[in-house]
Amino acid sequence: HTPFFGADRSIRLVQDSVGEIVTTFVVPLFRGLEGNFMSAGREDVDVRMLGNGRPFLLEIKDPRTELGPPGTDLSAIVPSDLDPEGRIRVLYQHVADAAALEVLRDGEDSKRKSYRCMIWTSKPVSRAALERLAELRDIELNQKTPVRVLHRRAGAERPKMLYSMRARYVAPRMFMLDMNTQAGTYVKEFVHSDLGRTTPNLGSLLGGGIACDMLQLDVIEVDLEYPPGVCGLAEP
Prior knowledge:
This protein is of the alpha+beta class and 236 residues long. The chain is 18% helix and 29% strand. It has helices spanning 18-29, 98-110, 127-133, 187-192, 202-206; strands spanning 34-39, 48-49, 56-61, 112-121, 139-144, 157-171, 174-182, 198-199, 212-223. The strands form two sheets. Strands 2-9-4-7-6-5-8 form a seven-stranded mixed β-sheet. Strand 6 and strand 7 (174-182) form a beta hairpin. The longest helix is centred in the middle third of the chain and has 13 residues, at 98-110. The relative contact order is 0.18.
């Protein structure tokens, strides 16, 4: 969602970001000087954002075109399909207010997120073992800063909640896993344990010395009422 650079910040690893695409297209429509893109969290570059997408707000600095009061529908000016290459689509093109910004910021820690991932296991897993995962609720995970980001984040240990899981058998060593978690949970690390730095982890919950890895990860939903209920909008 934001520009993605290497460890030393000198090499750009991905050409474009959602924020840059939105800002580049929308700011000139209102003859603004620049834009400030803010979103409800972010994901790794290899994770797809599905469902209704990720809530975001674009601040346009010094627009010379009047936007209107909060709640004003801008869909006649800002189309849903912003990107000619079809990489993104936006919903709820309305003028936001200060309350919308607060909801966006508060949701960084309080919201829930739903994920769907394809899991590989080191040993065959029975359907019964997968069904038992659905019986687990409200698990507190202790997660140390992942090894993959230690070069840019201080080492720390954070508790995060895993609210529910549902697994679907695909093959003896492969299954689909749906998860509902607290915002900020390191989902990849929960799956592969990150050298034991996340406890409990998927392998320990399955038992039997099973190691797990993730083949694909999608965000299905960000559970945040935004902007409906803030700007008086109705769901489409």
